[in-house]
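Run log // design_07
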């Protein structure tokens, strides 16, 4: 057997490295779970419509100020809701990316979050 394979590959202790990888994976899973408990708020119309989204991009609530509800202009209300939800989703994605960058070193890992 070539030198270096008995205690690891090229002098690297593979068991120790695998334990470190497993620890990082566990920490990543915990961070992903914690994102479900964190929220961000997006808004539109100067705060007339607000949406709250978790770090897992789940919509938790929508708050609509009464003065923005006009039965004659439902399209405006619909547009404000869409804009508020999209704003909250964008902030949620940014929060998740910032949290997970601790593990990825800033690399974009598809499917990670």
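design_07 sequence
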């Amino acid at each position: 057997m070539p030198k270096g394979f008995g205690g690891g590959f090229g002098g690297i202790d593979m068991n120790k490295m695998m334990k470190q990888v497993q620890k990082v994976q566990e920490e990543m899973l915990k961070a992903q779970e914690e994102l479900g408990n964190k929220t961000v708020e997006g808004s539109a119309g100067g705060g007339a419509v607000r949406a709250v989204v978790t770090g897992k991009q789940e919509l938790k609530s929508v708050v609509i100020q009464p003065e923005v509800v006009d039965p004659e202009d439902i399209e405006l209300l619909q547009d404000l809701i869409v804009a508020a939800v999209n704003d909250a989703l964008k902030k949620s994605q940014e929060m998740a990316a910032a949290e997970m960058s601790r593990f990825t070193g800033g690399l974009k890992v598809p499917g990670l979050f």
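Residues 41-103 form a domain with the Ybab; Chain: A; fold (CATH 3.30.1310.10).
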